[in-house]
Amino acid sequence: MVLSKCLEELCEADEAGAEKPKKDEKKTNPLYFAWLSLKAVGKILALPLSCSDAQTNLKAPMDWRKVSHEKSYSPSLTMSLPLVRSESKKRNCTINDLLTALLTRGIRRHLLLASPGVAPPSSIRCLAVVNTRRDADMSAFRAGKGANEFSYVIPRLPTGHETFPPCLEAVKRDMDALKSGPEAFVVREANNLVRNMVGGSFVMKFNCDYVVNKLTLFFSNLAGPREAVKLAGARVLRMYNWVEPMMYGIGVSVMSYNGEVTFVVSGDKERTEGVRRGIDEEWRELVAETESGMY
Fold first, then answer.
1. DSSP result, 40-67
2. Which of 130, 151, 282, 290 would bridge with 6, disulfide CB 3.0–4.6 Å?
3. What pTM does this model have?
């Protein structure tokens, strides 16, 4: 399954000969997987009836038609991939866990500055796009045959924690549950079923009016080439992607390329730079803590 490639293995190249973690027998039990599938179906059915995220400086209006058309894209924020990998190993988490926690803490910093005296919500939700193609299909895909099979999951970002360690632990728990569960596949099949019955326009309108407008941000991560590539004979020095924020308050993209990890924040004007600055400050503090021997 490629779900883990988007949620767990973001920009994480396995070292040759690295010991692979043993599979959890409970998670490979068909009955356990069936139970998780039923839970995922219940979660999806409850989405249209769920409450919206708290209205914060970053949350777009419930009526997405009122979203500002003035968008901006923050300057990219680049980190050393080996250093990110080192920090994640020291904290016993995946690279994606660490980056998601940095994003969460960066958002918290922005909210505290944007609304002085107002405590950020305990958590906010984001829509994260994932590719659900099976590993067995990826060789054909890389050969130019077939296409990605996209779906989405809805992680919670624990913005209520005042320090980094509990925030990271909460992120790890949520990501582990998403990676081991069938939620992305259930969402994909549900959308395909409804699309075949009533058409794609209905699926898009339903998602926009009853799911997307309740969330705070759009989150995309992508593992890019591990080594530098060439374009028309010239070496590409930097590579990163950005996401259209659409009806969200902000969109965040993360991409790895040639030993670097790059964040780009897009969204309503005067908000993107605050989130980018918050992520940068959190990362610098994390590295300084390690260098000083505090961690």
1. HHHHHHHGGGSPPPP--SSPPPSSGGGS
2. 130
3. 0.82
